[in-house]
Amino acid sequence: MASREIRNAGKDLIREKARMIRRETVRLTDICGSGHYGSAFSMAEIVAVLYYQMLHVDPDKPRWDDRDRFTMGKGHAAIGLFPVLADLGFFPEEWLDTYSRMGSYLGDHPEMKKTPGIDFSSGSIGHNLSVSVGMALGARLKGSPARTVCLMGDGEMNEGQVWEAAMSASHWRLSNLVGIVDINGAGSDGVAQETMRSEPLKQKWEAFGWETIVLQDGHSIDHVQDALNRALNGPGDKPRVVLAYTVAGKGVSFMEGTWQWHLGFLGPADLERAYAEIEAGEIG
């Protein structure tokens, strides 16, 4: 049976893996011609802490029954997840060089039937929390220790299905379910809260019966570790949600805090500048 031991990853390693996520996002975007920089960069520290420290997964047994499940409501940010899965050994690193090309196993959005390590195909936002509720309930019925983590974007909070799923999770007291909302403030069509105001999110999630953890700095490794540890390992019989306030495009100065780099492509000069800033940056 695969192990449920947590990886003992130090802060320096987490920082370097988050740097890798940003660096590879830039590289893969250069391969395919466009990419979701803002969303991939904003989740980098969260994903690094989850995969290198918190989640019980086994690259040698990607369908292990008792593994923790990770679903991405913000499936457009898969460009930042694929390098982590390759680095851990879920699939050959050479696959990254084929990103979004014809016949590739790695597309713009994650596909569970094509890519080892992907637990659910996503891209149409709003569905994944419902799927995650089903996964968590199924694990409970089977007596499995598996936990389910659902990463969502703040724009996803505009979807009514999210709140139906939130209501269901609290009704069933799914303490093995963790939601994470990456609140980077940027969407494909503008500033998220101007497109549709979803705040105050803390009061809304609490009203739906979830234990709510506010992570004010989603790029502080210490704070991310503390929030995710509380969410994944804390006591109680409620589902938990981490409201992670992040910065879209974090790590590249001309992208930070702007919705215009939700999706884009870098020319040669900006490409070199982005690489240089990512390598020089000390985030977390």
Describe this structure in words.
- The chain has 284 residues and is α/β, with parallel strands linked by helices.
- It has one domain: Thiamin diphosphate (ThDP)-binding fold, Pyr/PP domains (Rossmann fold, 3-Layer(aba) Sandwich), CATH 3.40.50.
- The protein is built from ten helices and seven strands.
- The strands form two sheets. Strands 1-2-3-7-6 form a five-stranded parallel β-sheet, sandwiched between helices. It has a two-stranded antiparallel ribbon with strand order 4-5.
- Strand 2, helix 6 (160-171) and strand 3 form a beta-alpha-beta unit.
- Helix 1 packs antiparallel against helix 10 (268-280).
- The longest helix has 22 residues, at 11-32.
- It is globular and about 50 Å long.
- The two termini are 35 Å apart.
Within the CATH hierarchy, at the fold level, what is the topology? Answer: Rossmann fold
In the CATH scheme, the class would be Alpha Beta
Strand content: 5-15%
Give a short account of the largest sheet.
5 strands, parallel
Cα distance, first to last residue? Answer: 35 Å
Helix proportion range: 25-40%
Q: What strand order characterises the main sheet? A: 1-2-3-7-6
Q: Which shape, going by the Cα principal axes? A: globular
Going by helix content, strand content and strand pairing, the class is alpha/beta
Number of helices: 10
Mean pLDDT: 90
Number of E strands:
7
Radius of gyration: 18 Å
The CATH architecture can be given as: 3-Layer(aba) Sandwich
Number of domains: 1
Fourth CATH level, the homologous superfamily: Thiamin diphosphate (ThDP)-binding fold, Pyr/PP domains
- SSE string, helices as H and strands as E: HHHEHHEHEEEHHEHEH
